[in-house]
Amino acid sequence: QLLGVTHKDWVTHIQTYTRSLDMARAYMDMLDANYKDSDKYFHARGNYDAAQRGSGGAWAAKLISDARESIQTGVSGQGAEDRAADQEANEWGRSGGDPNRYRPRGLPDKY
């Protein structure tokens, strides 16, 4: 035990952190790419990458995605149709679907 936290608790916190990094990496890549119609691809990819780390990854991806959509709705004025499309891409990636389904033509290979 360190600082009142067991080894198992530390491992759980570290795993949750690494899963959230998958989501952050996809978001940063989306900003870097700044590519038309790539939003859904990066939604699917972030969720896919996090979910590949196991059920905890899928849980973290859902939590982060739902929070992001809730926040964006208030900030960006995003419509219900776009929110639903984002959530469809999120769920597709989380359930193991290939993110390339949403990949726009011409998006550089590094993404």
Largest sheet: none
CATH class: Mainly Alpha
- Spans of at least 5 consecutive residues whose pLDDT stays below 50 are none
Straight-line distance between termini: 40 Å
Individual helix count: 4
Q: How many strand units?
A: 0
Tell me the number of structural domains: 1
CATH architecture: Orthogonal Bundle
Q: For the residues shown, what is the average pLDDT?
A: 87
Instruction: Give the helix level as a range of percent.
Output: 55-70%
- Which class best fits the helix and strand makeup? mainly alpha
Give the name of the CATH superfamily.
Serum amyloid A protein
Radius of gyration: 15 Å
SSE pattern: HHHH
In what range is the share of β-strand residues? under 5%
CATH names the topology as Topoisomerase I, Chain A, domain 4
GO biological process, one term: acute-phase response
InterPro entries: Serum_amyloid_A, Synovial_Prolif_Regulator
Region (Disordered): 72-111
Organism: Eleutherodactylus coqui (Puerto Rican coqui)
